[in-house]
UniProtKB/TrEMBL annotation, chains A, B:
Name assigned to this protein: PRC-barrel domain protein
Source lineage: Bacteria, Pseudomonadati, Pseudomonadota, Alphaproteobacteria, Acetobacterales
Recorded superkingdom: Bacteria
Record-linked SUPFAM superfamilies: PRC-barrel domain
Domain PRC-barrel, residue spans: 18-93
PANTHER family per UniProt: BLR1072 PROTEIN
Organism: Teichococcus rhizosphaerae
Length: 131, 131
């Protein structure tokens, strides 16, 4: 499998990835433990920006089928692991904003976005807005 | 089906849509003729920006299984039609940049992006970068 998400942060790198290849990609913690996988991406319709990758942790950690929106800039692709790495501990996840698959989320409610971004804080990889 | 992509261009509208709901959504021309559907989205990995919606036109118009990357800002969601509208004629599509599903595309080749953006020109809905 080729690299679906190496995130070299230089200008003009212009690496593109298909959304249907991101969906289903594994997610690991920084120790290399597999946490789950990306179920879908939440996209700002007007700006065309990926706001969140929604993580599905299955039955792992007792989180059941919960979905965890993670700001896109919290994800780093690791070619060795073949998946994304997030700098999030189990303890952090237990308290993280989440929803159930059958739950109706009002994504236009700015409080939801503020809560998610506030919970995870600035990207450990720096802002990419200026790239 | 609720509106998966109404694109009200005001600041802070913050309308989000799930990538797996965009995939498969119908695409129409400005006369309301169904052209095909969106097969996937091409996302800039670093910036987290949707660069293209990849249109699949099936066997319609004799285009076989070709895929047509369209700049995201060329798409407008029409609640009445229940799909995206693109201001593209059949004649334009016949000449548009495309690829086959089994074709290996070097998406890091900036000439490809320049060709696609140059072909369709500026968004008819204005720049959304400043939103």
């Amino acid at each position: 499998m080729t690299d679906p998400g190496g995130q070299a942060p230089q200008r003009g790198a212009s690496g593109l990835i298909s959304s249907d290849r991101v969906e289903g990609t594994a997610v690991f913690d920084t120790s290399g433990n597999r946490l789950g996988s990306i179920s879908t991406l939440m996209i700002d319709k007007v700006r065309g920006r990926v706001e969140y990758a929604v993580l599905s942790f299955g039955g792992f950690l007792g989180f059941g089928g919960s979905r965890f929106p993670l700001p896109w800039d919290q994800l780093r692709y690791d070619t060795g692991l073949g998946g994304y790495v997030v700098d999030v501990t189990e303890e952090q996840l237990a308290e993280a904003p989440s929803f159930k698959p059958d739950e109706a989320i009002d994504w236009s409610d700015e409080r939801w976005g503020s809560e998610v971004r506030g919970y995870y804080g600035p990207s450990p990889y720096g802002s990419r807005d200026g790239l």
